[in-house]
Specification:
single chain, 264 residues, alpha+beta, Diaminopimelate Epimerase, Chain A, domain 1, 16-stranded mixed sheet, three-stranded antiparallel sheet, 6 helices, 19 strands, 19% helix, globular
Length: 264
């Protein structure tokens, strides 16, 4: 599935595998490495009457992650397209219960925990690793563990060619580079790019989890709780954000590109 887009070959690709139950972790990791996308989501239905409808886990090609937006969006899209779920779906994940709600217009809204932001001094070597002047740096909270790095302008973000091994040494997971939109009339309020070489993802095209930090960061500066973010380098996608205190709503679309059976 391509997530946070309404057309194939854009947005962020994610693998989605629906199961009857989770096999052992080694098997899940091997499948994610074989799919070789930034994340592969694995889901199975839960018994009725509980706090969630489906169990959900996400793996990069090299490790499991605590929270992933685009693969959750992709999973909700698959459940709706296959007729396995309609309306609101509750997922039990490592970061708690996440809900997705499908609308008639094809969009899906996800309810995620808002990331807290702690301003910090730029780590030594950060500007050199990015190849750009750093305006401010914030550390994000649990479930993410990224550095949110504000750069001078949109053009700087779009032109980044970072030193990925150097970036991998600077944060727990990765770096979110962001700047205000050069021209908000083009339909987005801010831009971002995300680099996660430490977990096997050089650049993630469109990162839902990063927007749980980008939403409060830019809402405080722009003065609105509902914003639109444009993320990506070669591939781009759009994330609509709505800040609701300790929760952030992320809205986007997804399209199916490849469908098949895993023969193991």
């Amino acid at each position: 599935m391509d997530a946070f887009t309404d057309r194939p070959f854009s947005g962020n690709p994610a693998g989605v595998l629906l199961l009857d139950a989770f096999p052992d972790d080694h098997w899940l990791q091997k499948v994610a490495a074989e799919v070789n996308l930034s994340e592969t989501a694995f889901a199975h239905p839960l018994p009725p009457g509980g706090e969630a409808d489906w169990a959900l886990r996400w793996f990069t090609p090299v490790t499991e992650v605590d929270m992933c937006g685009h693969a959750t969006l992709a999973t909700a899209h698959v459940l709706r397209a296959s007729g396995r779920a309609t309306g609101t779906v509750r997922f039990a994940a490592r970061c708690g219960v996440l809900t997705t709600t499908a609308a008639e217009d094809g969009t899906i809204t996800m309810d995620f925990p808002t990331s807290s932001l702690t301003p910090i001094e730029p780590p030594a070597g950060l500007a050199e690793a990015l190849g750009a002047e750093v305006v401010s740096v914030h550390d994000t909270a649990a479930h993410i563990g990224d550095l949110l790095v504000e750069l001078r302008d949109e053009r700087t973000v779009r032109a980044l060619t970072p030193d990925l091994p150097a970036l991998a040494a600077l944060s727990e997971r990765g770096v979110i580079a962001t700047a205000a939109a050069e021209d908000p009339s083009r339909g987005h309020d801010f831009v971002s790019r995300c680099f996660f070489p430490r977990v096997g993802i050089d650049e993630d095209p469109v990162t839902g989890s990063a927007h749980t930090a980008l939403a409060p960061f830019w809402s405080a500066r722009i003065g609105r709780t509902e914003l639109t973010g444009l993320q990506g380098g070669a591939r781009t996608g759009v994330v609509r954000t709505a800040l609701r205190g300790d929760r952030t709503l992320l809205t986007g679309q997804a399209v199916t590109v490849i469908e098949g059976d895993l023969r193991l």
